[in-house]
C-alpha cells in the first residue's frame, strides 16, 4: 500500500483529452436547418416569480420547431382549424349562410314593417 494513489486507480480521465465523440460534420446552415425541421426540436421551460413563498406569476414556455409534415406526423395541426390562420378565413359555409339569411331577414323587414317583432306595439292580454 505504499504505491501512490494515482498508480492504484489507474489512469484518470483528463480534461485535455476529450472523450471520443463522432467528428462534428461541418454542414451549411441549410443542412442544419433541414435536419432540425426533419427531426423536430422541443424547447421547454418555466419562469416563476415568487414573493415570500407566494407565487405571483408563472410562465410556461413550450416551443416546438419542426416541419409541417413532422408536426402532422406528431398529431399537431392547430393551424388548420384556427380561422385567423387558415387560408379559408371568412369562407366558412356557416358564416356565409348566416350572412345570407340575415340579409334576407333585413329585406323582409323592410318590405313588411308590420312583421318586425321589434316594431310591434305590446299586446294587452
Describe the structure.
By secondary structure, this protein is α+β, with helices and mostly antiparallel strands. 36% of the residues lie in helices and 18% in strands. It is built from five helices and two strands, in the order ααββααα. It has helices spanning 5-9, 29-39, 68-73, 78-81, 93-111; strands at 41-51, 54-65. A two-stranded antiparallel ribbon has the order 1-2. A hairpin with a 2-residue loop joins β1 (41-51) and β2. The termini are far apart. The mean pLDDT is 76.
What is the fold's blueprint, element by element?
Elements: H1 5-9, H2 29-39, E1 41-51, E2 54-65, H3 68-73, H4 78-81, H5 93-111
Antiparallel strand pairs: 1-2
Question: Which short descriptors sum up this protein?
Answer:
125 residues; alpha+beta; two-stranded antiparallel sheet; elongated
Précis, in short:
The chain is α+β, with helices and mostly antiparallel strands.
Discrete helix count: 5
Residue ranges: pLDDT <50 for 5 or more in a row? none
Extended strand count: 2
Beta-strand percentage?
15-25%
Whole-number average pLDDT? 76
> How would you classify the helix and strand content by structural class?
alpha+beta
Tell me the strand order in the biggest sheet.
Answer: 1-2
Provide the gyration radius in Å.
34 Å
From the N-terminal CA to the C-terminal CA, the straight-line distance is 114 Å
Helix and strand succession?
HHEEHHH
What is the 3D shape?
A: elongated
Largest beta-sheet characterization? 2 strands, antiparallel
Considering DSSP H and I runs of 4 or more, what fraction of the residues is helical? Answer: 25-40%
Amino acid at each position: 500500500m505504499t504505491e501512490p494513489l494515482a498508480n492504484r486507480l489507474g489512469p484518470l480521465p483528463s480534461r485535455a483529452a476529450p472523450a471520443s465523440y463522432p467528428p462534428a460534420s461541418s454542414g451549411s446552415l441549410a443542412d442544419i436547418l433541414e435536419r432540425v425541421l426533419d427531426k423536430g426540436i422541443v424547447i421547454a421551460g418555466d419562469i416563476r416569480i415568487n414573493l415570500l413563498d407566494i407565487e405571483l406569476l408563472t410562465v410556461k414556455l413550450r416551443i416546438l420547431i419542426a416541419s409541417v409534415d413532422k408536426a402532422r406526423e406528431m398529431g399537431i395541426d392547430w393551424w388548420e382549424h384556427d380561422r385567423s390562420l387558415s387560408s379559408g378565413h371568412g369562407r366558412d359555409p356557416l358564416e356565409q349562410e348566416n350572412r345570407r339569411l340575415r340579409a334576407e331577414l333585413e329585406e323582409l323587414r323592410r318590405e313588411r314593417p308590420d312583421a318586425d317583432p321589434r316594431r310591434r306595439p305590446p299586446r294587452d292580454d
